[in-house]
Amino acid sequence: MRRRHRSDEEAEINITPMLDIVFIMLIFFIVTTSFVKEKGLEVSRPSTAPPQEVEQKKGPIVVKIDGSSNISLQGRMLEPKAVQANLERQKAEKPDSPLIVAAHPDAETDALVTVMNAAKAVDITNVNVATTTQQ
After folding, report:
1. Which of 48, 63, 84, 129 could form an SS bridge with 118, CB 3.0 to 4.6 Å?
2. Edge-to-edge strand ranges of the sheet holding 71-73
3. Cα separation, 9 vs 57, whole angstroms
4. Helix, strand, or coil here: 119?
5. Averaged over 69-84, what is the pLDDT?
6. Which of 102, 105, 121, 104 is nearest to 61 (CA)?
7. 61: β partners
8. C-alpha distances in Å from residue 76, one per residue of 33, 73, 80, 89
9. Going by DSSP bridges, is the β-strand pair 99-103/61-65 parallel, antiparallel, or unpaired?
10. Does the model's pTM come out above 0.70?
11. What is the DSSP letter of 107?
């Protein structure tokens, strides 16, 4: 018997363990990336319906006191006893609006005090007093 001896025997690399590791890493990355939740913005698209008119509920509540100490609100003259009721109605319509009291320099202080007391009774906290020269 003759022994065959190969001189050019090549060493083979066994890649089976390497493939096992690659597949385990692939499964690991697939599992971990599936739990990542992407965040986005919700965009509201405009509708094709015609725009609706919105009633103006913003802006200040303006009370004017003229040189004769007459109190007016939205162009209507008010009695001193009716100031609180009118301010309460205006506050109901515009709850966050400030009150601006535009007083003439010649007006009596009593009219300003009446408006300020009515504003306090109605719980209007943002009250501004301005001086005007208009009558």
Report:
1. 84
2. 76-78, 71-73, 61-65, 99-103, 127-131
3. 94
4. helix
5. 89
6. 102
7. 99
8. 69, 5, 13, 14
9. parallel
10. no
11. S
For the chain, where are the E strands, in sequence order? 61-65, 71-73, 76-78, 99-103, 127-131
Q: Are 99 and 87 in contact (CB under 8 A)?
A: yes
User: Using CA atoms, how far apart are residues 27 and 31, in angstroms rounded to an integer?
Assistant: 6
Give the span between the Cα atoms of 61 and 125, in whole angstroms: 12
Find all residues with CB under 8 Å of 134, minimum gap 6, and list them.
64, 66, 102, 104
- Main-chain dihedrals φ then ψ at residue 108, nearest 5 degrees: -75, 150
Residue 99: exposed, middle, or buried by beta-carbon count in 10 A (0-12, 13-18, 19+)? buried
In which band, very low, low, confident or very high, does the pLDDT at 27 lie, cut at 50, 70 and 90? Answer: very high
Q: Distance between CA atoms of 52 and 86, rounded to whole angstroms?
A: 29
